[in-house]
């Protein structure tokens, strides 16, 4: 039974919230050290208003978790799990408590960490608030899932927006990502924009030259990797029939450029905004570099996605581009070979 | 056995299945109709999978007021069954057996009749459409339900399994189980001792013989 619970309800939850966890790991594990975590915990305990945000965030997390579990239960291939509603109360509670506890385990671990400082500061009222709200939300989650399983399942209808025009093909990826992985899109974009903002902020201090912004663009391009993986997966599986259509290489290249540019619209918009504010047309070069780096990553994912050498190749490409930036290599020298490789890929049969 | 009144199921597209009143005695009932006539919609609602308006009562148990007791009495096999690809049939049997209080002896009998032993432990992602249909049929028969609803049970399975399935349906029917079956395949259906035939057209019950 554990295997069923893990494969059917725990793994898909973490898969769907992968972007969120990647952002948490990046912020909590890379950008913050232990000392900062300790300082943040003490700050939260000393400021009850800030502390109130924790139950609110937990409520948001519970809501997302419940939405994902209910959406899974409503899927056609999950109809067999509607039988869980027929379980005896004790068995159903045991089955779901494992799933809920494991899906909340990172949050609960952080709350345990926070509880140490609550105990240290003797702020027991905050501790009681924290754990009571956690217990209430866990209980509520279980109750809602049990309710869902008891009654006939609401059908999931795919409703197409009432538009009179056909969506161009390069928008399909964004539409399907919006449908299936909204959290991933949101968090990737949030991380990308946060990074860009940080690089621009430090650049304005005057301590860095133009290459600093180019390095920032490289980092932002690499942040898009989960989205590029998802895009490639959809193109290879759901839209594989398109690969067999007799399309010209210009068509295929146009699609790739269109869809990749569409995915980076927030970052491009940010660059445009900064370009206007700083009256710097050089930001156009940064925009070209961003699309170039993302195209290079797209090529790498297409060709080496399944290969065990992919992490090494991605790291080698990062350092290669980093060295090129350090030595002030002109942007078109970077863009040209990547464009040639893109054309070559588009010219291949059953490619892109 | 099964009676429903003021049955109504509406879709956002405007399509609706409306059956004002119908009483079916114990036996094998065949539902016929063209593609998109509302057969599968009706069956899924009667199986308690998707909601519908109206009163549905199976041997004194109401779907709306006693959904759990009602669903315990039902077995359902979809026309195009799908399951999570990374699980195997053995995992699904474990889930359903606990829910339907199915015995080892019954599971063993069904696995032999439907010839699923060979692939029971393989991941479902590698199953053919016939294997998926056999798996769904096995799960529907588990726990000796009072009513078994089979949507296109004879499609995609081989001739030998079709014969075995006809025998199984006849045997369970003699033991008191009722069946609601839809099928576009006339061959195996002709071998069944059908109690009544319902014809559906555009979401309405056209005739009941």
Please give a quick description of this structure.
The complex is a heterodimer of chains A (352) and B (209). Chain A is 78% helix and 0% strand.
Biggest pleated sheet of chain A: none
Beta-strand residue percentage of chain B: 25-35%
Strand content of chain A: under 5%
Q: Alpha-carbon distance between the termini of chain A?
A: 41 Å
Q: Tell me the structural class of chain A.
A: mainly alpha
Descriptive report:
- The complex is a heterodimer of chains A (352) and B (209).
- Chain A has 352 residues and is mainly alpha-helical.
- Chain A is built from 17 helices and no strands.
- In chain A, helix 6 packs antiparallel against helix 7.
- In chain A, 24% of the residues are buried.
- The mean pLDDT of chain A is 87.
- Chain B is globular, with a radius of gyration of 17 Å.
Notable traits:
heterodimer; A: mainly alpha; globular; B: alpha/beta; transport (chain B); ABC transporter ATP-binding protein (chain B); ABC_Transporter_VariousFunc (chain B); ATP-binding (chain B)
Question: What's the layout of helices and strands?
Answer:
The complex is a heterodimer of chains A (352) and B (209).
Chain A: H1 2-16, H2 18-31, H3 34-46, H4 48-51, H5 53-74, H6 89-120, H7 124-150, H8 172-180, H9 182-204, H10 210-223, H11 225-236, H12 240-243, H13 249-263, H14 265-277, H15 283-304, H16 310-326, H17 331-347
Helix pairs in contact in A: 1-6, 2-9, 5-7, 6-7, 8-11, 9-10, 9-14, 10-15, 10-16, 11-15, 13-17, 14-15, 15-17
Chain B: E1 2-10, E2 16-24, E3 28-33, H1 39-46, E4 53-58, E5 61-62, H2 67-72, E6 74-77, H3 89-100, H4 104-113, H5 129-141, E7 147-151, H6 159-174, E8 178-182, H7 186-190, E9 196-201, E10 204-208
Parallel strand pairs in B: 3-8, 3-9, 6-7, 7-8
Antiparallel strand pairs in B: 1-2, 1-4, 4-5, 9-10
Keywords (chain A): Membrane, Transmembrane, Transmembrane helix
Transmembrane segments (chain A): 48-66, 99-118, 124-142, 183-204, 253-272, 284-302, 314-334
Protein name (chain A): ABC transporter permease
